[in-house]
Write a structure and sequence with these properties.
There is one protein chain. The chain is mainly β. It is built from six helices and 31 strands. It has a five-stranded mixed beta sheet with strand order 1-20-19-18-17, with no helix packed on it. Strands 2-24-23-22-21 form a five-stranded mixed beta sheet, with no helix packed on it. A five-stranded mixed beta sheet has the order 3-28-27-26-25, with no helix packed on it.
């Protein structure tokens, strides 16, 4: 059995705000920085098929370090964009890469220094042989620059879990006794009735967690109940199956990217379900106070809770792989779209950032004690949202620039981002709030 307890040391990252003078700069002023010019190059590492472009943003230390590379180095590095994920959340300042050891620039995953030698004649011959990508095909990944509160969904009770469909434009608000379904017209309204209400089998039951399937045609819910409920959402919402669980309260759910596996987190154990055949594969024991949160990324799953330790487990052998002592209670766990990075929200509001298979770990410090801490990564990977009690913070990835901040009138219990990156929805004491993301 491979068990590895990680040291408590983390590299500290700085969350920063956009300078006031930059925020107020007219878009048509004609003023552009060197970073903006790099950002708009077609061979930029951010040139990916993602959401439509929006105004240039201020970049953090990682991007500043990359902008010092020569054009020849860029041409070679961008041949394999899969290596770009290795630069995630680097805390190195410009000029520090040589002193800090292996950097997180492209190509450094194997320990090479970040400064590449000039390309050889053979390399240039290869580059010239690669046909250029038409400019109209490249849509650059952009984070939102702000949000606009556009509607309120009157759920009537506490909203403990929420799910937002991007393709279907539906929102599902979950709580005690029922789930309410809202169509697109309700997203831009303040007092519109739901499209449908799905009553739970027992009115005393309460949904605490839900997960929308990638195809947005199914939803699974868990909470204060002896069952997990699998819902078909189209053409009309209905119960497909009740999965008999072995615990009285499900705190957290996670589903694999192909929607074949579901993890349900209970006190002291995690249930592993085959969703296609609706069969319980395994009841996996975990530390009794380390089972509030669960997430799955690739062939690993992660658990954490009140005992302040984060555990990773092999999904095939079920052996414990790692244990991180985070010294504070874990309130949420989520991963980025590449399934390479895990974000962990702590009671202190700090965010722990871990690579799933490399020894890279960081801490972003927010310095606020919280009762509720939710994390949600965007499907495009350029930003994520963290809610801390009544506050919403949208942070760019990997720079950790604070894109916008919103304060609500009551504690936020949950949040979700639509898969098309157009809407952010938060759940609170008796309603859900809809924000349209502005690019």
């Amino acid at each position: 059995m491979s068990r590895e307890k990680e040291e408590d040391s983390f590299s500290i990252l700085r969350i920063y705000d956009e300078p006031e003078e930059r925020r107020n700069m007219p878009e048509s002023s004609g003023i552009s920085s060197q970073h903006e010019q790099v950002q708009y190059q077609p061979d930029s590492p951010y040139a990916m098929l993602q959401i439509p472009p929006c105004p240039p943003m201020q970049h953090g230390p990682v991007y500043q370090e990359m902008s010092g590379m020569t054009q020849q180095q860029w041409d070679l590095q961008t041949l394999d964009t899969s290596e770009l994920r290795a630069m995630w959340f680097s805390g190195a300042e410009p000029g520090e890469a040589a002193e800090a050891g292996p950097s997180f620039l492209p190509g450094s995953a194997l320990g090479q220094p970040s400064s590449s030698p000039s390309p050889s004649g053979e390399a240039w011959s290869l580059l010239r042989a690669v046909p250029p990508i038409p400019g109209e095909v490249v849509v650059r990944q952009r984070p939102p620059r702000d949000s606009w509160k556009v509607g309120t969904l009157r759920h009537g009770k506490r909203v403990y879990a929420v799910a937002v469909g991007g393709a279907t434009r539906h929102v599902y608000t979950c709580g005690s006794g029922y789930i309410r379904v809202w169509d697109e017209s309700a997203l831009h309204a303040w007092d519109k009735a739901p499209e449908a209400q799905l009553d739970l089998q027992n009115p005393q039951n309460c949904v605490l967690t839900c997960k929308l399937f990638p195809d947005e045609q199914s939803l699974i819910t868990g909470g204060v109940s002896q069952t997990l409920t699998l819902w078909d959402l189209a053409p009309t919402p209905r119960v497909r199956a009740q999965l008999a669980s072995t615990g009285p309260m499900c705190y957290s759910l996670a589903i694999s990217s192909d929607a074949h596996i579901c993890l349900a987190c209970f006190r002291g154990f995690v249930e592993i379900w085959d969703l296609q055949n609706q069969i319980l594969i395994r009841k996996h024991e975990v530390p009794i106070y380390g089972s509030r949160c669960v997430d799955i990324a690739g062939n690993k799953f992660w658990t954490g809770g009140e005992d302040t330790s984060l555990y990773s487990w092999d999904l095939r052998s079920y052996q414990r792989l790692q244990q991180f002592n985070l010294q504070n209670e874990i309130l949420s766990i989520t991963h980025d779209p590449s399934e390479e990075w895990m974000l962990v929200g702590l009671r202190t509001s700090d965010i722990i950032i871990l690579h799933t298979h490399r020894k890279e770990k960081f801490k972003a410090v927010l310095q606020k004690y919280t009762h509720h801490h939710s994390l949600k990564f965007s499907s495009c990977g350029s930003y994520f949202v963290t809610t801390l009690d009544e506050s919403i913070h949208c942070l760019a990835a990997p720079s950790l620039q604070r894109l916008f901040q919103v304060k609500e009138s009551s504690d936020i219990l949950c949040c979700d981002i639509s898969s098309d990156n157009r809407y952010l929805v938060t759940g609170s004491k008796n309603s859900a709030t809809v924000y349209q993301l502005m690019y």
